[in-house]
Design brief:
Blueprint: H1 3-28, H2 45-58, H3 63-74, H4 94-99, H5 108-125, H6 130-139, H7 141-147, H8 154-167
């Protein structure tokens, strides 16, 4: 085989291996909702606590609720990406990030600010009902409205229980 053809073959094989690895990681996911490029990179607890306190206060949301959502969504990894494309600490979907003017969902400050503003809006929409707001954060407000409560999805019900128990 000519040397140039061998180099092309080697590059193609490497690309195939990378694509297979990424596809497998994206389909199999991790315990916190998806494939995390580069592995787990949880933030230092003090830095994360400071960010949570700042944006929870600015957006009138209980900092324990924000911390519980972050723990359930990303385990504190600002680089987390879910199988469905949610990104960052609070796992913002691209549409939600755009709605809250988050230009870099992997920036912990922007992500927590946008996610906390979203939680604030959900709490207002559901008249302070934390369980409904958290269900809407996970499944979307449309699913909560259609179900007239927490949707009958096992994942959402488990998520609500996990977040609410993390507030205490």
């Amino acid at each position: 085989m000519p040397e140039a053809a061998k180099r092309v073959s080697d590059v193609s094989l490497r690309r195939l291996c990378v694509c297979v690895a990424l596809a497998f990681g994206g389909l199999s996911g991790c315990s916190r909702g998806g494939f995390m490029p580069g592995g787990t990179h949880a933030m230092a607890a003090g830095q994360l606590d400071s960010i949570v306190r700042t944006y929870a206060q600015a957006n009138s949301v209980d900092p324990k609720l924000v911390a519980a959502v972050i723990d359930a969504e990303s385990a504190g990894d600002p680089n987390a990406v879910s199988r469905v494309g949610a990104q960052g600490l609070m796992q913002l979907m691209p549409g939600t990030a755009a709605m809250y003017h988050v230009t870099n969902p992997f920036d912990p400050y922007q992500n927590v600010d946008g996610g906390t503003r979203f939680l604030h809006d959900l709490l207002r929409r559901y008249k302070g009902n934390v369980r409904l707001a958290v269900a809407a954060y996970n499944a979307g407000p449309g699913a909560v409205d259609a179900a007239h409560g927490i949707p009958p999805y096992a994942e959402t019900r488990a998520y609500v229980d996990r977040v609410v128990s993390g507030i205490r």
